[in-house]
Amino acid sequence: LCMLALALIKHYHVLAKYENQINAFSEFLEDLPDVDEPVWILGACYDLKTKKSELLSDVRSRLWFTYRKKFSPIGGTGPSSDAGWGCMLRCGQMILAQALVCRHLGRDWRWDPEKRQPKEYHRILHCFLDKKDSCYSIHQMAQMGVGEGKSVGEWYGPNTVAQVLKKLALFDDWNTLAVYVSMDNTVVIEDISQSCSETPHLQSQRPLDWRPLLLVIPLRMGINSINPVYIQAFKECFKMPQSCGVLGGKPNLAYYFIGFIDDELIYLDPHTTQQAVDTESGSAVDDQSYHCQRTPHRMKITSLDPSVALGFFCKSEEDFDSWCDLVQQELLKKRNLRMFELVEKHPSHWPPFVPPTKPEVQTTGAEFIESPDKLFESEEEFEILNV
What we know:
Helix content is 30%, strand content 16%. The chain is α+β, with helices and mostly antiparallel strands. α3 (87-104) runs antiparallel to α4. The longest helix has 30 residues, at 2-31. β1 (39-41) and β2 (44-46) form a beta hairpin.
């Protein structure tokens, strides 16, 4: 009887929690602007009149990374929480996690707290746990950022976190992801083809025809605020099937943007401090705190800081070719002022393109970077990119 009572109590709490989640999102739906336009979430389109529950499921299924506290000190003697400085790193984790979900589970996969999740899902989560052995942990990202000129505890802009992800991906032998970060607002097809056609990191693996691609395009769409001429093209990016979201926000406040409705952006906010999750290697992760089960945030597109990083995931070469066609049709031919350029060949006035390669070491490069003695709390704004 005692066991039955405990089971009933647990079941009641689960139902109550699930009901609260539905109520919270219902408030979000009721609060949406009364417009006939659909909601776009990472390439998926939802009619609010007929697809409300599907919209709820999609948003809730995105992996949500926030500030955490009480994890092992970064570098052994550094901070044990990233509250106040790690928001852009957390957004970087979210955009990469979305790429990995698409890679292993597909864009149509949905998270259900009542069901058992695939082993690939838990393996993805293990990549981001807050401990130094996890490939994309806050520990690895913060220490790899030292090589980008950022002290542990210093605030990052979208371009810097993209460079950190590109370096860390070299040590990820499971996903064999190619991370390409564009330069000078220019995406070079030839360079991407070279990056994605490389052999994997492990010699024992046979060469791949095409390594899955996370394409990150850092941009500055204005001086102090976003130039209105870019807004429609910016929204078009969320409509593309390859959309992986956008890194951006406001000075010192980073958000992960996943879609839009009318003139408002929908985003996941990392500015919630949660307890670090302690999970043994290989075991299932208690994942309730890794999904945003509250009202998603919205903001006017015109309030966005002009410095952003667009993200796209292309699982195959055909997927990338399709993305190139969409960019030509929707962004380049229809716009007088282009957000970025897409070119076939490597510009002759640029230094030669050399695909990044994994150093000949048995551990990640981040572990070779000593944590600085002095931690900095930076109040810098988003970095200004070359235009």
